[in-house]
Model the fold of this input.
Amino acid sequence: MTRFQSSTPLRGAVIFDRDGVLNQDVGYAYRPDQIVWTPGARDAVKAVNDAGLLAFVATNQSGVARGLYTEADVAALHGWMNGELAKGGARIDAFVYSPYLPDAPIEAYRRDSDCRKPGPGMIRALLADWPVDPARACMIGDRETDLAAARAAGVRGVLFTGGDLRPVVAQVIDSLRA
Done:
């Protein structure tokens, strides 16, 4: 079931990977004190919002499958991140994550899931649940698996190699306005 009416105009969207794009990848982050924002990340999200585009996060969270933290921890961290973004007038419209891992120590999460990047499941779910024009959507990731998920879902992928996120997002926004 979609969250929008079929008559709702389709919009562009930027889908961010979380660890390594919005925040530094410190390995299995699940608490606010582990989050170090990437330079320009909060301003980049605000720029997406200000451009009238939807802002999403799609992130693999195998730490759940490894028993390092829980799905409630992931949800709490995402709520905290949106609270921090809101202080600057920004927001993520939806966070999606995959807690699955084929060789997970926790049986409930031991599976090969299309939602785990490089699978396109998380991106396809966003496209189904939100009024997004896939031709005006882009995934920004720091790994080839992010780009492979984007390709498989039929959206553009952009590799973020570090530094200030703002100029990368500014170029993406310009390309999605057409």
Q: What stands out?
A: The helical segments are 41-50, 62-65, 71-86, 121-129, 144-153, 165-176. The first strand starts at residue 11 and ends at 16.
